[in-house]
Amino acid sequence: MSEAPLPVTPARPRRPRAGYVMAASAATLWAINGTVSKVILASGISSLRLAQVRTTGAVAGLVLILLATDRGRLRVRARELPFLAVFGIAGLAFVQWFYFLAIHRLAIGIALLIQYLAPLLVALWARYVLHEQVRRRIWLALALALVGLALIVDVRHGGTISTLGVVFSLAAAVTYALYILLAEHAVGERDAVSLLAWGFAFGAVFWAIVAPWWSFPTGRAAAHVSLLGRLSHHHAPVWALMAFMIVVGTIIPFFLLVNALRHLPATRVGIIAMLEPVVATIVAWAWLDESLGAIQLVGAAVVLAAIVTAQTAR
Fold it and tell me: Is residue 6's pLDDT more than 60?
């Protein structure tokens, strides 16, 4: 920790197209990671431990990147620490934990539908708390996206609804919205990698206190598990799946999303991230052999229409 001035990131021109590509890529990687996480959870690893592994692995990777490239970016002022603690624990650690808890009790599509109320919460915050102007097309895009997501998960046939699962999904929505808003606030002063490194660091410390590492079920991490679905005849070690989750499913997409906020406002980034349930449904169909009917295809088209609508709002 240092009180010395931090290196200021030079102002960069906003490139909306780059922001769209980054946000869409992040959503796609998270969608793939959802199925990988489901395989890991089926091995017996708890939701809390999975969130702990994801958070701790992410901070280790990000810190190594900064140590190898520019150590100065790790410097932090004392006054920044409370913000980074909230960002890391409430915005990064909790959103993962609540999501894992939700998919234990709900169909993954239902959990994602509820979690993706987050962009609506971001828009409501921007309009009624920050008193910012929110274009009518953004509201239309949000409405279309929610309708599309409902069609994708086919709520009528989504199975038994767990009240506790709904509560956890709503908590995931609130923490996801908080993450987007905090990240948008922070990207003007700190680069994406160091912001995420400090955020995940606070999250890792929090999980280490809640669940000490000496009680971690290492035997389960070393086990080989079936990849389920169409790949059920193939097996992989749980630790390898965790490594994929940390690098491809966490570090890269979070980096992309934070950088997208340099080029687009939080409301649009949140809507574009709604591609995640669309891609997740396709991945689940291709990998886990879950059904993909006409209603889901219509829902995917509606979500894509919502994203296009958001992009055309000026």
Answer: no
Residues 6+ apart with CB under 8 A from 97: 47, 48, 51
Average pLDDT over residues 71-79: 86
- CA distance to 22, 196, 264, per residue, from 140 (Å): 23, 32, 18
Q: Say which residues have a Cβ less than 8 Å from residue 231's Cβ, sequence separation at least 6.
A: 287
Tokens of 77: 């002022």
pLDDT tens, 181-194? Answer: 888 888 777 887 88
At residue 279's C-alpha, the angle toward residues 175 and 36, to 5°, is: 75
- Round to whole Å and give the CA distance between 175 and 56: 19
Q: Give the HSE-up count for residue 142: Cα atoms under 13 Å, Cβ half-sphere.
A: 20
Distance from the Cα of residue 83 to its chain's centroid: 19
What is the distance between the alpha carbons of residues 44 and 39, in angstroms, rounded to a whole number? Answer: 9
The predicted-structure confidence for 127-172, as pLDDT tens digits, reads as follows 778 777 777 887 888 888 788 877 766 655 555 567 788 789 889 9
Q: Say how far apart CA 267 and CA 248 lie, in whole Å.
A: 25
Question: What is the model's pTM?
Answer: 0.77
Q: Distance from first CA to last CA of the chain, Å, rounded?
A: 41
Contact call for residues 266 and 122 (beta carbons, < 8 A): yes
193: which 2 tokens? 């990698």
Q: Report whether 260 contacts 22 (CB < 8 A).
A: yes
